[in-house]
Request: fold
Amino acid sequence: MRLDGFGIFVKDMGKMIRFYRDVLGFEIKEPEDTKNVYLIKDGTLFMFYGRDDFEKMTSHRYEYVKGLNGHAELALYVDTFEEVDEQYKAAVDKGAAPVLEPTTEPWGQRTCYIADPEGNLIEIGSFGRPFEEREPK
Reply:
């Protein structure tokens, strides 16, 4: 078995599409009233599912966290510490909710956190070298 991708169950598809497209730069081509978004981001399948549609499909009701969601994170990597700071500022300036300002951690990673409009946590981080060399030393 191998990881194919991941999905986020969304309440407001239009708002989430606008955030990931306009704030984070994801190439989402679907209209804002679509039921599902499927896109490949850096070789990984990334999906949005409408909550109501998913519940109808599975014949189950689910509970959803309101506010900041501490169940998971979406991690984005940039090559330099400077880019962490720049991307954080750009995302917050465009409306992302700030969670943790850029910080250099004891293990050598510069990291920060923002949240999307539905409270999902997004990390922007770097080990100060290209993605292919990102493993901690």
